[in-house]
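Input chain follows. Return structure tokens only.
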Amino acid sequence: MKTGMKNSFEWRMALLLLGLMGATLQAGAQALTRRDADEIRVLAREKVKGLNDLLNAIANEDLSNYERRYLMMNSYMPSNDQIFINDGVIVEDDVDPKHKSSAPGLDTPIEKYLSNFDLFYVKSETNTIEFTNLVVSDVKVDKYPFVKVFYTQHFKGKSNKDNTPYTPIARVAELRADKSGNDWIVFLTRIAFNSAESAKSVPVTPKPSATYDSLQRQKEPVVSKASDRPPVAKPEDAKEGERVFKELNKPNAEAAANARKWGAIKLGAGVAALAFGAVTYSMLNKDYKEYKKLIDNPEGLTSYAKPGIYVSVGAAAVGLGVSLTSLFDFKRAKQLSQ
């Protein structure tokens, strides 16, 4: 009896030691070097700056609706421009200028958030969104390494939905880091209003949609291992890539025709102005020669012919300038047609 109890005790101690060893090994595997942590923090800062650039691009009036949709989709789907870890990322809505802090009902899926921003934030020629006071936290490890970036967001534009002006607000971005070979990959997992709760909370990786999962399975995993084989391109992938390339680069016939039209108008106006200036100058010069024959001490041409000579020279200068600008229109039309 004593022997059985002793054996049972020894087995329990052995299992306990194995468990402790496993936990120790796991902790060792998750431990980050200072270099790893610094790299992750730099990448996190760059991702948040990438978000700033994305919002400015969406708010740029020079981009077409197709181009804006393309940028938005690439930010959360597998692509070289990916910022968010997947399409399940949640953002606390700040598109409405009345939303200035965390509140129930503000959680918005990333696709809807970007679409709302595109719809309600007024477009402009210049950048109107700026992130300042970026502070990157130290890297922590839970199930994976994560970091938070605190920043002040400035929406300097307007909302077409509400006349309330935007004010600077404190935001926090949560990011997850994964090792890919010898490099770290960092993606945004959530964006929220900065608060004591959001500053302390442990990030949770959002659940992607079935579409994202399907696309991700066709590519090299985000978290790759040294033993992973490089992805092999499939014929259908090549065809899809070719289709997207043609769609993105198809000639804009309307814009090209418009550029040619304005080029022709400017060229015609420029030639007419040059001709007017030349004819005017010729007439003034002829009159001046007749004038010199009749006067012993004639004044100079410029003094005699003013203000007409200024008109002729000005017309010639304007004509030359307008003619030169027409060349840019014809060049742009050629580029759009290629």
